[in-house]
Amino acid sequence: MNDFSHADTLHRLVKEALDSGAAASLAEANAMFRSLRLGVTIADSEAHNSSHQAALLTTVALARRVFLGGVCVSGSTTAPLTVSLSLGATIGEAVVKLGGSIGEHASNDPVVTIGGTAQPRSPGFCIRTVYAGWRGGIVPAHLDFVAAATSIMPLAPMLSAALAVNEAFLYARSGNATFGHRTVGMSLWQPSHNNDWLDPAADEPDLQYLPARLWLIGLGHLGQAYLWGLGLLPYPHPTGLSLILQDVDIVTPSTESTSILTDATQIGQKKTRTTAAWAERRGFKVSIYERLFGADFTRQPDEPSVALCGLDNALGRRALDQVGFDFVVGAGLGRGYNDFRTIRLHTLPASRPAASIWNAEDRGEDIGERPGYQKMLSDGDLDRCGVTLLAGKSVGAPFVGAVAACLALSEVLRLLHGGPLYQVIELDLHGIEHRSAVPHSLDFSRLNPGYVRTSTRGMHATDAGHFELTVGGKK
């Protein structure tokens, strides 16, 4: 039996209420979040569509970690599950397995409508998920907007769901009616702020190629969001994806509050083992590395040359371009109550080495003197060392990691489709229209780390047992 400290049991968004001073005690912060509820609805016309199912299930999986009073799904929940996730026979079964409930939401609950057409205007918070091609976002539910009829890249519904949960949480925590009346979204093909996500780009392709081999470093908040996104991609044969999963940590009670694949039954288990089990149920081939990531080992030629990094420490990130990867995408998230919605995405190699990009740890603001922490100290719940340890833990929200994962995975997908690559992407989910994206200065057209087609037609197997794709005219 593990004896977990307060730092390993505190919900990472409940901590936001303590750190910001919105709650004067831990009990008050917990009560605040237990009062948060969300309604989600899906009509019969959308329930049988895999894109709408992906949006629905992502919404539930994220929201139930945020709205601790419950996530209630209404509408057509008996439709057969068509997304490639092992969550039951119907979307209703999947909702319950993910921690949601089936039934009618309360009249004053914020509501997310999955897809569909314009709804009657509501006096409360009611938004609608929309997606087309590589673009995903949210609109007020009454807005008469229908996305152009194009094929939907599966990460677009995931992005839309994450933005919906973020918007609902902004509204629930602030009561500001501005939230829910905005049009918010972005293109995963052209993530720059000066591209209108509501309009398809002329060169936005149908999804044809998927990664065949990936190395995931860190299996917490970000690493699990990467896996969820990979699970939504349309692999014609799931064994077409081989993964190396690397981590040393175990699941703690607080892990569930940010990590989309974790539940309370896994507490005390290695993150490598729980995520590998999920990936294998999806059909992926998995190897695990249970050692710290650093510059003291070298990637072997037969191992994945593309890595997705989910580390939350500068020391590990500084080694990302030193161990032999050909292409690395690393996402960093804000840690404090005032910046936990921020995302900074880097791709490597870049014009600067990793050691220069992550040259020091940001210690952040000292919030140990806030009323909530001082009350725990005066009540004897924690000693000074315990307060310091707890205050030093990061604030986190699962919807932030989900947006970051959509961007990171899209960087790899754009590499395969000859699209634009970005050296740095920065955004804050409080206002993503102010994001920045710096185009890459390096040429990756000769890189071919092994990929599969979304259709089995035209595929050819290599001696390595995976399918290979010509990228940029080169093999």
How does this model look, in words?
This protein has 475 residues and is an alpha/beta fold. 27% of the residues lie in helices and 18% in strands. An 8-stranded mixed beta sheet has the order 11-10-9-12-13-14-15-16, covered by helices on one side. Strand 5 (126-132) and strand 6 form a beta hairpin. The longest helix has 20 residues, at 155-174. The radius of gyration is 21 Å and the shape is globular.
Q: Which H/E pattern describes the elements? A: HHEHHEHEEEEHEEEHEHEEHEEHHHHEEE
Number of helices: 13
Strand content: 15-25%
| Spatial strand arrangement across the major sheet | 11-10-9-12-13-14-15-16
- Compute the gyration radius: what is it? 21 Å
Class per helix and strand makeup:
alpha/beta
- Poorly predicted tracts of residues: 456-475
Q: Kindly, what is the distance between the CA atoms of the first and last residues, rounded to a whole number of angstroms?
A: 52 Å
Average pLDDT confidence is 88
Shape: globular
The total strand number stands at: 17
Major beta sheet summary: 8 strands, mixed
What fraction, in percent, of the residue positions are helical? 25-40%
Index terms:
18% strand, alpha/beta, single chain, 475 residues, seven-stranded mixed beta sheet
Describe the secondary-structure layout.
Layout: H1 14-20, H2 26-34, E1 37-42, H3 44-47, H4 50-63, E2 70-75, H5 91-97, E3 101-102, E4 111-113, E5 126-132, E6 135-140, H6 155-174, E7 184-187, E8 209-211, E9 213-217, H7 221-232, E10 242-246, H8 271-282, E11 285-289, E12 306-309, H9 314-317, E13 327-333, E14 342-348, H10 354-357, H11 371-378, H12 384-391, H13 398-416, E15 422-428, E16 436-439, E17 451-453
Parallel strand pairs: 1-2, 1-4, 2-3, 4-5, 9-10, 9-12, 10-11, 12-13
Antiparallel strand pairs: 5-6, 6-7, 8-17, 13-14, 14-15, 15-16
